[in-house]
Write a structure and sequence with these properties.
Length: 330
């Protein structure tokens, strides 16, 4: 079809040239007119052909980008990102029935280790790879910041504590304060529910809630399973721990604690008023497989955007300049 269009335009040009030749008063003016007309027509034909080619290629690219993918994708790591990644995997597999996506937890450090050694396609992490891996291993990975995550301290609902200052929080988690009566609560021993050193949630909480202070260890109640942590806090009046905001969206069995009078909400995170948050990363070893790339693009795409906030995760583009600059300065 494209060739026939070009031929038609050229034919029209030749007819125009012939008419000019018949009307001209000299051979030189006729020749010049003929040449000009032919050149203009040829350029027009070339432009039309190029436009049609570009349109065809664009259509092909669009079809390619939306075409279903096949294969397998394995991901592991962050427990904070786990609910979102699993929800995305279910919807992605509905649209791509020949692709199987398996998402597991294990902690950010473990996820980064596994993607670095090729055990999984995607390593999910609450922190940058450089914080958990050596420089050479981290340099091989490609970072995809899929959303933001807010971390919140949680206590037993019957405790009656709804707010703690940063200093009080640090004193509690470093083991200096051991009874709730010391921070305005009842005469009840404080029970720490801690996270393992591989936990990205722990790293974020240490950095932004505890001002870098090292958390006291409680080996008997250490877990990187947020569901187990919530259950432990719910069943023990003096317990305190911390989880991603996404775990509190449909759970009112524990009490989220404000820090310095600021509630752990998405709105306060976006504005920069609440400081305990971080980016959620999905790392690939190099560019990753076609299927892994497609899954990550789906999570970051418009079709899945509405699910982010409804599940308690933050949209990166909504973070205020104040919030972003405060973290960049750390």
């Amino acid at each position: 079809m494209k060739n026939r269009k070009v031929v038609s335009v050229l034919a029209a040009a030749m007819m125009a040239a012939g008419m000019l030749a018949g009307c001209g008063s000299s051979s030189s003016s006729t020749s010049a007119s003929t040449t000009a007309a032919t050149t203009a027509a040829t350029e027009a034909a070339s432009t039309e052909a190029a436009a049609e080619t570009a349109s065809t290629e664009a259509a092909a690219d669009t079809a390619s980008s939306t075409a279903p993918v096949s294969g397998e994708v394995t991901a592991a790591g962050s427990s904070a990102l786990l609910p979102l990644a699993q929800a995305a995997a279910e919807k992605f597999m509905e649209a791509n029935p020949d692709c199987v996506v398996t998402v597991n937890g294990g902690g950010s450090g473990e996820g980064l280790k596994q993607v670095a050694d090729g055990s999984v396609d995607i390593g999910n992490s609450d922190v940058f790879a450089e914080e958990k891996l050596d420089a050479d291993s981290a340099a091989k990975l490609v970072d995809h910041e899929v959303c933001t995550i807010t971390m919140a301290p949680v206590v037993n609902k019957d405790l009656g504590v709804t707010n703690l200052t940063t200093d009080q929080l640090i004193s509690i988690f470093t083991g200096k304060t051991t009874n709730w009566s010391e921070v305005g609560g009842p005469d009840e021993d404080i029970l720490l529910v801690t996270r393992p050193s591989s936990s990205g949630t722990r790293t974020l909480f240490k950095t932004w809630a505890l001002n870098g202070e090292e958390e006291a260890s409680n080996a008997s109640l250490e877990t990187d399973d947020s569901g187990t942590l919530l259950q432990t806090v719910e069943q023990n009046k003096g317990a305190i721990g911390y989880v991603a905001l996404s775990y509190l969206v449909n759970d009112d069995n524990v009490q989220a604690v404000s820090i310095d009078g600021v509630e752990p909400t998405l709105e306060n995170t976006y504005s920069g008023d609440y400081k305990v948050w971080g980016y959620e990363h999905m790392y690939t070893n190099g560019d990753g497989s076609e299927a892994a790339q497609a899954f990550i693009n789906y999570m970051m795409g418009d079709d899945f955007a509405s699910d982010l906030e409804s599940m308690g995760y933050g949209v990166t583009s909504k973070m205020s300049d104040a919030a972003v600059s405060a973290h960049a300065a750390q």
